[in-house]
Write a structure and sequence with these properties.
Tetracycline Repressor, domain 2; 2 domains; mainly alpha; 2 strands
């Protein structure tokens, strides 16, 4: 069987404005990541990043119109791409998904995501950027779920997007409540219970 992959870690964002210089972009994101480690989310400003990266502030705003957009871009760079292979059955695929995100969110780089969520509660720009990120992840996860629908693994009438929302919500809830030690396989079974067609 040919393995398919869903970019659950997310497709690369399209450049905003003029074509980006890769070296300048890398310098800006590295500078922003360093400031995040040193001063936290509240200490990250466009001015501080531009100064450390020796880049024009206009360049930052051209590529990332808001501080929130830059924060999410830094997180995506720290996370890297992790295409989730279609394991042949949704239960195995989602177990693998939970195993990856729970492991990543426990690393120093992954902990940035919880800080971004917290900042989004009081900052509209960060909230908007986070919602854009959530929608991208949801679309990728919906595609993964749709493959299982095609295989007849899911109960008839199930909407792929609704199930993907449930899968994602369970992961984010574990992050926000400090339960990243949850067993990925057990959680996948609990979340998918009632959605999957029982094997004969």
């Amino acid at each position: 069987m040919t393995k398919r992959t869903g970019e659950c870690a997310g497709p690369k964002r399209q450049s905003i404005g003029a074509r980006r210089n890769p070296e300048t972009e890398a310098a800006i994101l590295t500078a922003a990541a360093d400031i995040l480690r040193e001063k936290g989310v509240r200490g990250l400003s466009m001015e501080a990043v531009a100064r450390r990266a020796r880049a024009g502030k206009a360049t930052l705003y051209k590529w990332w119109p808001t501080r929130g957009a830059l924060l999410v871009a830094v997180y995506e760079r720290l996370k890297g791409e992790h295409p989730h292979a279609d394991k042949g059955h949704l239960l195995d695929t989602i177990t693998d998904f939970y195993r990856f995100v729970f492991g990543h969110w426990q690393t120093p780089e992954g902990q940035v995501f919880a800080l971004i969520i917290a900042e989004a509660q009081s900052n509209a720009d960060v909230a908007e950027a986070l919602e854009g990120y959530r929608r991208e992840r949801l679309e990728a996860l919906t595609e993964v779920v749709s493959w299982s629908v095609e295989r007849g693994e899911i109960r008839p009438g199930t909407e792929s997007r609704a199930l993907a929302e449930t899968i994602m919500a369970a992961a984010w809830m574990r992050l926000l409540t400090g339960r990243l030690d949850t067993d990925p396989a057990a959680l996948a079974r609990d979340v998918l219970s009632g959605w999957l067609v029982e094997k004969q």
